[in-house]
Amino acid sequence: MNEHIAAVALEKAYRLLNHGPTVLVSARHAGVDNVMAAAWACALDFSPPKLTVVLDKIAKTRELVEQSGQFVIQIPTVAQAELTFQVGHRSLLEQPDKLARSAVELFAVPGHDLPLVAGCSAWLACRLIPEPHNQDRYDLFIAEVVGAWADTRVFRDGHWHFETADPNLRSLHYVAGGHFYAIGEAVDVESKVE
């Protein structure tokens, strides 16, 4: 594992996703790994930490999630914009070498049989909470976060530090047609609530 990766306390795991980035979803089942991009992921609860993600019925990753009951949500960086676009527009069903073509490098974290994408700024290992109605009707998956890690160059002490990190470590926010925005500068409000 990379020297800059550190565990994140589960009570702070929601912060890894709370700023609304495009995410990569990875899963493994029966020796098959896949990674896809997703724009619709959201923190759902604090304790235990939960999240939601929309996975379309045509996605091979969805099938792997449903079969294994687990997956990883990771936060790609500006340096991974091309990779993110490629895994979002290629299908493992049509291109069995999709991950190699998209330059995806996977790694593992001890204690979790999950494929994590190298180079991201954060990773959330998730256990699926089966909700067949939501999954079938809305493509909406709910999961409990069972492990979380982040790159300490950009997330430490329970907070993102995009403004002091290398700009290539900023998160991506997808608009459409291959167009992303990188997260911007911090805006702090010092206000007293009475």
Automatic annotation (TrEMBL):
Molecular function terms, GO-annotated: FMN binding; oxidoreductase activity, acting on the CH-NH group of donors, NAD or NADP as acceptor
Cofactor(s) required, per the database record: FMN
Pfam families reported in the protein's UniProt record: Flavin_Reduct (PF01613)
Keywords: Flavoprotein
Superkingdom classification of source: Bacteria
Residue ranges occupied by any Flavin reductase like domain in the UniProt entry: 15-157
InterPro entries: Flavin_Rdtase-like_dom, Flavoredoxin, Split_barrel_FMN-bd
The name this protein goes by in its record: Flavin reductase like domain-containing protein
Species name: Pseudomonas fluorescens
